[in-house]
Amino acid sequence: MDPHPILQAAAVMRVLVFTLALLSSVLVASEAKIIQRCHLAKELNDLGLSQYLGFTLGDWLCTVFHESGFNTDPPVSPTRRKAYGLFRINNSDWCSDGVQPSKNLCNISCSKLIDDDIKDDILCAKKIIKQNGHLKAWPRWAKRCRGKDLSVYVKSCNFEIPIQETKSYETW
């Protein structure tokens, strides 16, 4: 019996096993994390986003809900421009993915915006709103959140939330 077909079959099997192992590790590593609404509200509050430049926790939670559904999953886009993390921060201006040329104004790797640590996401979001002066950097905020009753986003969250003043965004 010719040993070459057996060697070839063994080589194919090794490649197949390696490919499956690699694929399964990539799938595990890229599992999205969905942050619970009240947990996110507490994190946003603790890291100073409540009333940051006059925007409420409701504004931020509504924005994140409509941008990402509280999901940190990696972006899927047919273009080179992608948006990362809970806030869907783009790779052309705010983070660097190592592929798309970027201003990287938050001085952060885009991959840091899809991990379990949301502190860097929040710091970048603060930089974005500080530079822009408003939440219009997130178009879904203007369409879905601005001027609406956003109390539902913090309702039933069991922690102390600072008094949230009403701010009129209708003049923007």
UniProtKB/TrEMBL annotation:
Belongs to the glycosyl hydrolase 22 family. The keyword Ion transport does not apply. It comes from the Eukaryota. It holds the Pfam family Lys. This is Glycosyl hydrolases family 22 (GH22) domain-containing protein. One of its GO terms (molecular function) is lysozyme activity. InterPro entries: Glyco_hydro_22 (IPR001916), Glyco_hydro_22_CS (IPR019799), Glyco_hydro_22_lys (IPR000974), Lysozyme-like_dom_sf (IPR023346). Keywords: Disulfide bond, Signal. Residues 1-32 form the signal peptide. Residues 106-124 form the Glycosyl hydrolases family 22 (GH22) domain. The keyword Disulfide bond applies.
